[in-house]
Amino acid sequence: MLAQILTALVALIHLYILWLEMTQWAAPRGRKVFGTTAEFAEASKVLAANQGLYNGFLAAALIWALVAGLHGAGWQMGVYGLLCVVVAGLYGAATVSRRILMVQAVPAGLALLALLAGV
Questions:
Q1: Half-sphere exposure of residue 71, counting CA atoms within 13 Å on the CB side?
Q2: Of the N and C termini of the chain, which has fewer Cβ atoms inside 10 Å?
């Protein structure tokens, strides 16, 4: 049960990131969240939309795992999706902002631990 709740939370976080990067990147809200200038946001919005799409793929893997049930193939998809989020979060924290560690890697790591523990 805990694994389902945490996995759903990670999926929701990534759907939110998808929305921010694909639709709000150059808007005041997106610029505030990501700490960018209007000029940078406008010049990089296509890149951000592509990045948002990848965050959507992470969310899709986790939603697939939840729909399938976190056992059997659903368990495998959950482990895969959460590991991908942890790796992406660690890379983002190392290269972009430490805040990504708390927003992405830590929640996904907790969900992964719960999934592996079977709780």
A1: 3
A2: N
